[in-house]
Amino acid sequence: MTHEIAVIPGDGIGREVTPAAVAVLEALDIDFEFVEADAGDAVKEETGEALPQETYELAASADATLFGAAGETAADVILPLRSAVDSFVNIRPATAYPGIDAVRPETDLVFLRENTEGVYAGLEDRLTEDVATLTRLTTRSASRRLAEFACDYVEDSDRDGFTIAHKANVMRETDGLFRDTVAEVADDRGVKADEVLMDAFATRVCLDPTQFDVVVCPNLAGDVLSDLAAGLVGGLGLLPSANVGPDRALFEPVHGTAPDIAGEGVANPAATIISAAMLLEYLGHHDEAAAVTEAVETTLVEGPRTPDLGGDASTEDVTNAIVDRV
Ligand code: NAI
Ligand code: MG
Fold first, then answer.
1. pTM for this one?
2. Ligand 1 pocket by C-beta < 6 Å: which residues?
3. Ligand 1 atom with the shortest distance to the CA of 268
4. Residues with Cβ within 8 Å of residue 223, at least 6 apart in sequence
């Protein structure tokens, strides 16, 4: 079976790390059809549109999408692309890889972030020059869908259960509904779930990340807490993510376009290549996913390394080393 993969490099180092991940996928014995499309600042400059309709439609119909990064137009690109795949969960692993100078090398967390509502539902108003409001949306259906996914995830990955991070002691209705719904689903499914107030989580995870494993959270909390965890494992350059919907999914590094190094050919391709490993896992190619992850890990330990990790290798050197190891 051929998998159609939409490839959307975007801007800046997105144009350097996305081809690197495609090169790794091409080295595998799997039938892929890659279809490339534009999005971001550069195409907006040319056409007036940051996300051309054909790019949106490609993501909405391909089996999976690999996205790099977009610059100033990031929100105009990534939010509609996530809805093109009807993505209700954002998976963000924060793992400290061997050989990396991490603040907390023992960190091995996975955030499962609600990806459609909360304070990112776009329900904002400017009432007067001095007053702005925001409506926070929580629905039982979105909370339930996330919880079912979290239970599947825990079962499939042999993890021990999950922690619900919330602030239901203050946001009693919205986070109350979120917490109660997720806990109910876990109980029905026989999956172990405990809970933590999200502010306490921030402190506790810094002091001892091994207290946590899979963390299920509302949209904003997931965004902020997973970036915090990125700090614990050695920065954004290594973090992959997946936006999963019912029928398709989009994979992207957590980092942006890195304008300070774009064009120099020294961007670290690891985050995007690990995102490609998540894509392989999603498409059911478990052995290949494991092989790619292992090749990245070996390369992080033995080199070559890009300058952000203290080396002097280029994106191409690192990519070639990973391809050879795969
Ligand atoms: P950034 O992630 O692009 O860069 C932050 C720092 O990390 C920079 O020093 C950069 O050189 C370094 N870095 C990031 N990825 C790296 C890699 N793969 N290899 C080596 N070093 C790496 O975040 P910043 O600077 O806040 O944003 C730059 C632009 O990216 C902005 O225009 C922003 O809107 C956009 N952005 C887009 C995102 C997306 O498309 N999903 C996400 C975050 C930012
Ligand atoms: Mg963020």
1. 0.94
2. 13, 17, 69-72, 74, 78, 236-237, 252, 255-261, 267-268, 271, 308
3. 19
4. 113, 120
